[in-house]
Structures are given as C-alpha cells and as structure tokens.
Known about the structure:
By secondary structure, the chain is mainly alpha-helical. The protein has 2 domains: about 15-40 and about 55-90 and about 95-280, no CATH class; about 285-385. The protein has 15 helices and 6 strands. The chain has helices at about 15-35, 55, 60-75, 100-120, 130-150, 170-175, 190-195, 195-215, 220-240, 250, 255-270, 275-280, 285-315, 350-360, 375-385; strands spanning about 85, 95-100, 180-185, 185, 330, 335-340. A hairpin with a 5-residue loop joins β5 (about 330) and β6 (about 335-340). α1 (about 15-35) crosses α6 (about 170-175). The longest helix has 30 residues, at about 285-315. It is globular and about 60 Å long. The model is unreliable at about 1-5 (pLDDT under 50).
Amino acid sequence: MASPRGSRPPLEFGGPLGAAALMLLLPATMFHLLLVARSGPARLLGPPPYLPGPEVLWSPQMLLLWLTWLVLQAALYLLPARKVAEGQELKDKSRLRYPINGFQALVLTALLVGLAVCAGLPLGALPEMLLPLAFAATLTAFIFSLLLYLKALVAPASALAPGGNSGNPIYDFFLGRELNPRIWSFDFKYFCELRPGLIGWVLINLALLMQEAELRGTPSLAMWLVNGFQLLYVADALWHEEAVLTTMDITHDGFGFMLAFGDLAWVPFTYSLQAQFLLHHPQALGLPMASLICLMNAVGYYIFRGANSQKNTFRKNPSDPRVAGLETIPTATGRQLLVSGWWGMVRHPNYLGDLIMALAWSLPCGVSHLLPYFYVLYFTALLVHREA
C-alpha cells in the first residue's frame, strides 16, 4: 500500500519525465562511449563513427555468455561465506543477514579465468564482443527491473523504499519500489551491487590488456597502471564488502532500473573506458610521470579508505572506541553527522579520495582527449547529487 501523499519525499531526477529521459539517455551514453573509444578521433562530444544495426547489437551467443556470467557469480554468492553480517535496522525493527564472500568470489573467478585461459580460452577476443555484451546487459537490466517492479506490487508496505513509492509507474520503475527484494535469502540488490559488474569490470580490463599484448607484443605502462589501479579499487570494495551495508544504496534506495542498469551494465562497460581508449589510442608514459600518477592514486586511496572505514565504523556502532570520541551534530533526520576526524577536515573526504583516484586512472591516457576523463566528470556530477 502506498504511503499517504503528504509523507512521500520529493521526487528526484525531475520526476517521471526525468526518469523516462534517463532510461533512454544512460544506455545511449554507454553505447556512445563504447563506439567513440575505438574510433580514430575519439571525441567525447562528437558523433559516433557509425550507428550499429540490430545485427551488430543482438547476438544470442553473447546473451548466453552474459547469463552464464550472472549464473556463475550467483553460484559464488551462494558458497559458504567467511562471515555473515547483519544489515541496518529496518522499519519493522528486523535486520537482514548478508554473506560476506565478495572477495572470495573475486579470487575464485580469477582462478577459473586463469584455468580457462590456460586451456585455450581466447580472453583477448572479449573486447570485440563489448557492443553485443553491453546490449545483452541492458536488455537484462530492463527485464530484471520489470520483474522487480511486479514483485514489489505484492510486497508489504514495510518492505518498500522511501523514494520509489510515488504512485507513478515510470518513476517507481526507475527508482525501485522495494528496498530489499529477496527470494529466500538471496538478496538481489546486494548481489548486484558489488559482484557481476565490479568483477566484470576488471575482467574486461584484463581482456583489453591481453589484446594490447597480442597487437603490440607487450602491454603499455599506461595500460598496466589503469589495470592495477582499478583492480585495487575493486579488490578493496570486495574485501570491505560489509561496509556497503551502511551505504545509501542499501539502506535508502529501492532496487529498480537505476541501480540494476548501473550495477550490471554501466559499471563494467563505462568504467573500463580508460583501458578501452588505451587499446585503440596507445600513449607513451615515462617512469617519472608514472611515479607521480602512482603517488596521486596512493594519496587518493589513503583518504578514501581512511574516511570510509571511519564512517562505516561510526554507522555500525557509534560507541566503538575508535570513533566514540568524534564530535557530531544532530540532523533533521534524527541521525548524527560527524564533524571531526576525517570529517573535521573536509565535508566529504571519502568523495575527495574517490575523485583523486578517478583522476589518477585517467592521467595515463594523456591530455590530448577529453574522452578518458568522462569518468571524472560523471563521478563529480554523481557525487554532487549524492551530497545534496
């Protein structure tokens, strides 16, 4: 049952019209980036070199490959976990339980891919399949979001998200009506948040590195840096998987098209943009500049990890000795806001660290093209919205 009109939060993203526009704009942007990254001019704001037809985008084999990837990650999710953690308290005062085995899934995936490559799997051919794979992921996200929306129609009011319950089907389909859609203990939002997309991202990066080695004899230093930096980011996210349980995505946002498309399609196919660019536009990178970029990434990671660990510790248990002495102020929502520690130096230190790392990922691509810096621009806009 919908909540009374007066208790609903204001609509985000421009309401139903904005949500409908984003459902078209986000996939279009993703395909634009995939097309221009491999073109000669590689202009972020220019037209793509061509518009792919249905025969280029649709491939039953690529759909099967994509579904196989999702099934593999789901199977790894269901393996015994090194730890089972409780989420934040829900409206009905209950707490859901989550397996903490994302890093285990990353390691097992790496072992399986390594064995498959040794057995002759042509991983270097994967970059040529990105367009139909991205189409399969987008199609999956739309169908999955529809099933999630239908499931939410029979969910109790206590299971609905604060923002995706406007009564408008387009807006609610986009934002997501149900907060934690599950079948038995399998949590769809938690599974998609860090598993298929993030691990798929580093797998695509690795495939791009291998194809560059096949084309040029050895991967470039720039390609090594991009792969290393982004692998560190993904491994860190999965090692600290429990921290995602206190983020807005899990505690506040419903699971609809916005998160489903973002997790399953946007992350692997646009976050790998720097590696895609380097494959088709190799960059000469000397050791002095590479060392400075490594230092920048290390500084960003230090800020990002320190701030996020402090925030997560405080959200889980404000009485924890590591954060008990930090100063806070009350907010309109009744929660406490940190104003000391990392948060005493800058309002959003975790975002600052994220942006410094994002810049370090782009700098190996040189400064002659804006395209590799799309992630920095997009991420800035995303964090400004999240901050608000």
